[in-house]
């Protein structure tokens, strides 16, 4: 009698994301397991195109089938150092795997991969990680809710106080534009750049937004008042959800209630596209945006993040709320907008 075939062993290797067939295989794996937008090779590709930070990843295979995937962005910053982020410039990521053992194996392989790439830090924004890594679940919360069946039901699902603000915004003579044209992109960048400067944060490169719109399913919704854009958001559509991702408003947006109008119009638009969930993204726990999203009726869900730091290396600190950066943030808020827009992308592309 012949001996039975030995079961094939699981192996981990670096993915070749520049090979279309390999990227397509991983895209299918992510879709079948309902992975996040930020697990997709298309996201990594957009980040590389828009910031210059390299798209990488580790995949586990057994018997010719993918059993695990760890998307990675290799981030280099002269200010914050080198790291592997999963995923870069994202609020989610981490290992997507069939078994926990596979996930841990991918993380251990990532440690060696980071050493080879001279990266002293690995950041996982979700998913399992080894017990000896640093784990946090108190820094950020996510906000996701089902979209009601129609426009009136969406409005009634908003808590009474916030619903009153939305109703007031509907009485204002706003212009609403949705698209991806050069004009849409220019309006969005102008509003977004002003918004993040006012928060003391450097703006991302303009090319990042264009690359994301070209690689992924997304669009821009802009609210204008008397011909002037006052609020704008770049959103993505993934697995039945709309994700308002890069959005902001000018100083005028607040008293005009332009943000209230913007998000309600996005809910309307998402319904028309067949979305069943509104993913309001993440916010720092107990921050202003955290409470704003709660006012809309979204329930905060703590997010679990994990990180690894190479032995002997200093922990990476790019947290904008860190006391280490408070003086820099205060100074940035005072910069003239043209100066902030010129310098911001040089810094922001290294934040990861």
Automatic annotation (TrEMBL):
<dbReference type="InterPro" id="IPR038740">
    <property type="entry name" value="BioF2-like_GNAT_dom"/>
</dbReference>
<protein>
    <submittedName>
        <fullName>FemAB family protein</fullName>
    </submittedName>
</protein>
<dbReference type="InterPro" id="IPR050644">
    <property type="entry name" value="PG_Glycine_Bridge_Synth"/>
</dbReference>
<dbReference type="InterPro" id="IPR016181">
    <property type="entry name" value="Acyl_CoA_acyltransferase"/>
</dbReference>
<dbReference type="Pfam" id="PF13480">
    <property type="entry name" value="Acetyltransf_6"/>
</dbReference>
<dbReference type="InterPro" id="IPR017469">
    <property type="entry name" value="PEP-CTERM_FemAB-rel"/>
</dbReference>
């Amino acid at each position: 009698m012949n001996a039975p075939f030995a079961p094939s062993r699981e192996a981990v290797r670096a993915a070749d994301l520049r090979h279309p067939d390999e990227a397509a295989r991983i895209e299918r794996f992510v879709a079948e397991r309902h992975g996040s937008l930020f697990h997709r090779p298309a996201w990594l590709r957009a980040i590389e195109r828009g910031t210059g930070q390299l798209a990488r990843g580790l995949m586990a295979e057994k018997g010719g089938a993918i059993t695990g995937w760890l998307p990675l962005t290799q981030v280099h910053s002269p200010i914050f150092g080198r790291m592997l982020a999963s995923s870069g410039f994202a609020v989610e990521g981490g290992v997507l795997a069939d078994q926990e053992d596979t996930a841990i194996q991918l993380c251990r392989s990532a440690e060696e991969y980071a050493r080879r790439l001279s990266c002293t830090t690995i950041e996982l924004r979700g998913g399992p990680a080894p017990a000896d890594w640093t784990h946090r679940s108190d820094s950020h919360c996510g906000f996701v809710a089902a979209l009601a069946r129609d426009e009136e039901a969406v409005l009634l699902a908003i808590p009474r106080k916030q619903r009153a603000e939305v109703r007031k915004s509907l009485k204002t003579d706003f212009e609403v534009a949705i698209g991806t044209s050069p004009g849409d992109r220019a309006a969005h960048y102008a509003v977004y750049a002003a918004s993040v400067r006012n928060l003391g944060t450097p703006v991302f490169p303009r090319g990042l937004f264009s690359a994301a719109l070209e690689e992924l399913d997304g669009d821009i919704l802009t609210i204008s008042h008397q011909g002037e854009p006052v609020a704008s958001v770049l959103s993505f559509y993934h697995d039945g959800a709309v994700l308002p991702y890069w959005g902001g408003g000018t100083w005028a947006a607040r008293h005009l209630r332009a943000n209230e109008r913007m998000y309600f119009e996005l809910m309307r638009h998402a319904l028309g596209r067949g979305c069943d969930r509104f993913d309001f993204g993440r916010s720092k726990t107990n921050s202003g945006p955290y409470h704003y999203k709660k006012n809309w009726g979204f329930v905060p869900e703590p997010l679990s993040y994990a990180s690894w730091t190479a032995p002997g290396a200093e922990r990476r600190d790019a947290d904008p709320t860190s006391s280490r950066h408070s003086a820099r943030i205060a100074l940035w808020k005072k910069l003239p907008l043209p100066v902030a827009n010129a310098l911001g992308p040089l810094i922001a592309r290294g934040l990861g």
